[in-house]
Design goal:
This protein has 372 residues and is mainly α. It contains 22 helices and no strands. The protein has helices at residues 3-11, 18-23, 25-35, 39-52, 57-69, 73-86, 91-103, 107-120, 125-138, 141-154, 159-171, 180-196, 201-213, 217-230, 235-247, 251-264, 269-281, 285-298, 303-316, 320-332, 339-347, 358-368. Helix 9 (125-138) packs antiparallel against helix 10 and helix 17 (269-281) packs antiparallel against helix 18. It starts with a helix and ends with a helix.
Length: 372
């Protein structure tokens, strides 16, 4: 949890009885555990406190945030809504509800409540930052940048908002065609974030990603290794390091990092897709196929991509019938409807051996008719 959120939670205003809370040792210990980051212990203490003072809105509010950081988003929302219903109209509780909806990926509701929060308190940096995150996740990158700009104008030391603005800058364009000036601005934002909070692992990781987009793989690995050293179980840093190693054609090193991601995040379909592709580059096509099928098993939405990648493996093994079978299977999953995917397929070097094959040409023509 960032220092900004802690500060915000400490100063949130609800009418409570100080004398009652001073006598409630469970509440006091819950606050101590909360501020120390021991959220499960905080929940236990707040539960006991609510048995003593079942109407204490302050306790519900803190328990809601404790639930939020335990990833119990529905329970968090339930507590926040109770405070909203029975407490005074306050920007803080609208922001908390928006935050919970953000984590539940209900972005329309998140935007609704966060917008109310900033209208009630136009100097509420935390709410602007959270709304920016919501816009970012929706792909509204310019609106996200506007909100992050507002957050840092209100609080020029807001490290997380600088980090988030940097992320929005280099996601503002197609990352495959990254704009150098945007990425350089992003790096400056990550440096500002680290100036105000040197322990912000996110900013270190993102700086590594930005250097990869600039093609500086050595610097990318340096910052990603630093992020891993700061937080070894932060699987996103291992994944980004694996991606940098792939781009630098160190496929063996990438596979080792992918395996670490699997250990830390075993139900992540992206890592199986990308690890499978790295194995294919080394000629381990059968292992690659297993990884692709695992991705589709974890998330059926990946089935079309998995089938396409399996077709690539069989093409490289020069097994025509299996290649055509999986291309057909990917087509049935509507994989080729996207014009960018179809254009990539036409140029994909994995199919070079079959480029002039009549059956391959026939499939290409059929796939083209479904492109939008």
């Amino acid at each position: 949890m960032t220092d900004k959120i802690k500060t915000f939670l400490v100063i949130i205003f609800f009418t409570i009885s100080f004398q009652l809370l001073s006598q409630d040792l469970y509440y006091q210990r819950g606050i101590h555990h909360f501020n120390a980051g021991f959220y499960e212990l905080a929940v236990n203490d707040f539960n006991q406190s609510l048995k003593i003072s079942p109407k204490a809105l302050d306790t519900y509010f803190y328990r809601g945030y404790a639930y939020l950081y335990c990833n119990d988003f529905e329970l968090a929302l339930k507590d926040f809504k109770r405070v909203m219903k029975h407490g005074p109209e306050d920007a803080g509780i609208y922001s908390a509800v928006g935050h919970a909806y953000n984590e539940l990926k209900n972005y329309d509701k998140a935007l609704h409540f966060l917008t109310i929060a900033v209208k009630l308190n136009p100097r509420f940096a935390e709410a602007f930052n959270n709304r920016g995150v919501c816009h970012h996740r929706l792909g509204n990158f310019m609106q996200a940048i506007d909100d992050f700009n507002a957050a840092v104008l209100i609080d020029s030391t807001y490290a997380l908002a600088y980090n988030n603005r940097g992320s929005a800058r280099y996601y503002h364009q197609n990352v495959a065609e990254a704009n150098k000036s945007d990425i350089e601005l992003a790096i400056k934002d990550f440096e500002l974030a680290l100036h105000f909070n040197s322990d912000l692992t996110l900013a270190v990781r993102n700086k590594g990603v930005a250097h990869r987009l600039l093609g500086d793989y050595e610097k990318s690995i340096y910052f990603l290794d630093k992020a891993i050293e700061m937080q070894p179980d932060f699987w996103e840093s291992h994944l980004e390091k694996a991606r940098t190693l792939v781009q630098s054609e160190d496929y063996s090193g990438a596979i080792q990092e992918f395996m670490t991601v699997v250990r830390l995040s075993p139900e992540n379909p992206d890592v199986f897709i990308e690890m499978g592709n790295a194995k294919s580059r080394l000629g381990y096509h059968e292992e690659s196929i297993k990884n692709q099928l695992r991705a589709a098993q974890i998330n059926p939405d990946y089935t079309g991509l998995s089938f396409y990648n399996i077709a690539c493996c069989y093409a490289l093994m020069q097994e025509k019938e299996m290649m055509l079978y999986y291309l057909e299977s990917a087509w049935k999953k509507k994989f080729f409807k996207d014009i960018k995917r179809y254009a990539h397929f036409l140029k994909d070097p994995d199919f070079e051996f079959f480029r002039n094959d009549p059956d391959f040409i026939q499939f290409s023509d059929k796939a083209r008719k479904k492109v939008k």
